[in-house]
Amino acid sequence: MPQNEWIYDWNTATPPAIPAGTRVLLDDETLRDGLQNPSVFDPSIEGKIEILHLMESLRIDSVNIGLPGAGPRAYAHTEALAREISTHRMKIKPNCAARTHENDIRPIVEISQSVGIAIEAATFLGSSPIRRLVEDWTVDHLERTTEKAVRFAVENGLPSMYVTEDTIRTDPETVKRLYSTAIRNGARAIVLCDTVGHATPSGAFNLVKFAVEEVVKPSGEKIRIDWHGHNDRGLSIANSLAAVAGGAHQVHAAANALGERVGNTPMELMLVNLRLMGLIEQDLSRLKEYCEKVANATHTKIPPNYPVVGHDAFRTATGVHAAALIKAFRKNDLELANAVYSGVPAHLFGLDQVIEIGPMSGKSNVLFWLEKHRVPADDATVTRIFDAAKQSPRVLTDDEVFALCTEAARN
């Protein structure tokens, strides 16, 4: 039975904010912006290369491979990642961050020429009135800096991606002036940023719409618009989708929401939501592997209740939930089982629903567990496990349940 016959979907009761068929690109910031999180370890180059290949397997469109102007280690890692992309003829497209200074842009030029592939230069500078106040900058100074940096990148053969920090708190006149200057000097991608996590979905939509109408259309050029968001208010996914609805072509994100403070837009949840919205179709069965590889390489942990890839994402030990899930399994319908108590179908991401036994379980949990583990479900065994679960303050481990089975068999 098609799933749309089981579920009334209020999400589609009105036309979608992002029309079907919209192509949404993703730029992976894990290996650069994500590593600005103060709790992470900078992975070895071997670890970064493994993560890069997982990005490729997930068909992520582009990747920020570093800020090579930051020092020798950053330069060496950036060059190695660029060479890996070139050697393996990977489809993922590299870009590098750079401040709007020639000293930051020149290393990108060197690496691009050495490796023999195009590397987009993501040149950034602060733009908001509050930042200008702190730095004693004028908009005239920012405009001159923008012109010089973008022109230098383009003249040296680099595709130019122009970025202003804290765009979401920047006045319309400055937004228009700086981005128009960048485009006039050869930038063919512009990035609108919510650097401090200030945005709401309406703010993201409004800013992108303004850039479309007041910057891109008047330029007469074909310009890619990117959205770069942070998660300080817990709105990064909603903001990113609103930005796409407003006209953004590409969203920047990082695995496991890594990034400064509470982190960037989470890449894995962008992939999940775009897949569930029907806007991408790629195989995401390695999504959890990607997240776990990043967590291990950066010495960070994925919270157990984290959506989709967390340990508890598809586990239940609650009696009423488990009972419904078991009934669905009995119908031999995987899609039904994955939808009855979950808004995210586990099988789309190479995962399974798991029924466990704990203090909130019913006997159906016990019977299902025994059947799955091929243990005879006699009354004594069921009662022993059920009684122990009701006295436990937590879910029982498989080893504990097996031990209870052994005890029941001895008595």
Task: Enumerate how many helices there are, as a single number.
Answer: 15
Q: Numbering strands along the chain, what is their spatial order in the largest sheet?
A: 1-2-3-4-5-6-7-8
Mean of all residue-level pLDDT scores: 95
CATH fold node name of the largest domain: TIM Barrel
CATH architecture of the largest domain: Alpha-Beta Barrel
What's the CATH class of the largest domain, please?
Alpha Beta
Structure characterization notes:
- The radius of gyration is 25 Å and the shape is elongated.
- The mean pLDDT is about 95.
- The strands form 2 sheets. Strands 1-2-3-4-5-6-7-8 form an 8-stranded parallel beta barrel, surrounded by 7 helices. The protein has a two-stranded parallel sheet with strand order 9-10.
- It has helices at about 45-55, 70-85, 100-115, 130-135, 140-155, 170-185, 200-220, 235-245, 265-275, 285-300, 320-330, 335-340, 365-370, 380-390, 400-410; strands spanning about 25-30, 60-65, 95-100, 120-125, 160-165, 190-195, 225-230, 250-255, 315, 355.
- The chain folds into 2 domains: about 20-300, TIM Barrel, CATH 3.20.20; about 315-410, no CATH class.
- The chain is an alpha/beta fold.
- It is built from 15 helices and 10 strands.
